[in-house]
Amino acid sequence: MAVEICLRDEEVGSFNDGRVIPATINRQYNILMDPEDVPGATLDAKYRSARYIAEQALLADDKNCPIVDWNYEGLFRNSLTVKPTGSPDLFRFDATATWERFRPPNDDSQGEATEYLSGSVNRTTVNQKLARERIGTYTYSGGKNVDTGLLIGVTAGEDPEVQGADVSVPTLAFNIKRVYPNGSFTIPFLQAAYTFVGRPNSAAWRGFAIGDVMLVGIDGADSDTEFDHITFSFEAAPTETDIEIPTAKPDGTPATITIPEKRGFDYLWVRTRPINFGDVMVEVAQCAYVDQLEQYVDLNVLIP
User: Fold this and answer.
1) Which of 62, 114, 155, 210 could join 105 in a cystine, given CB atoms 3.0 to 4.6 angstroms apart?
2) How far apart are CA 72 and CA 68, in angstroms?
3) Cα(145)–Cα(184) distance, rounded to whole angstroms?
4) Phi/psi at 35 (nearest 5 deg)?
């Protein structure tokens, strides 16, 4: 269904605490649609459908009405209203959306800390195709050693594969529980928080470098007391630099692929190729790739 959303030029902002970045922003919109495209047997039914469609179209417009506005260091959208303009049969609506800065935590009446940390460092098993160091290569008397660089579990034959090995690697996970004023844990907050979950940090945050920590979950409840308690769960992985992968050129000459940097949640993978070492076909590294899998976000906006 064709819905036309027009963002008006006017934008109203309010400031506090001497900031140069606004604490709240209000934007106005005009929303138009063709009555022929609106479902409904009667004009009244069409009008009710049209208002709902207009509201959903604006909510889905990430460019003009994003859940989190990063133009102002991350303001959360907290309200949206859609009202008819002119005659109902025109199917034209005025809309207003408001963004505001997420409120900081409060001290409770006992003067206790407003933030509580819990966490763990454990190990998990993953399939790893590259060894950190090759200790030795051995064969029978008169046999020929096959150099596979640091690739693990390379099969023989005309179509060799790199099977890798299941290894134990460390993991770091932690939770931050924060105390907020009552009424902070809301649907608009969850909608905004949704855009942070599963994405690495785009700026340094609490000692973690860019790309090394990820918000993986948020848990909380609206309280009937003076405060809401919200728990943020994180996972972390360190940046690695100067990663070296031994390989061989097509003529068998030893070579090395060097990856200057892989941030914690970037993905490193290796493309291999078969080469002939004498009378043995073996798979060696051809090139390495470092990919960013998710959009990065600034966690300082959500949890300073």
Assistant:
1) 114
2) 9
3) 65
4) -55, -30
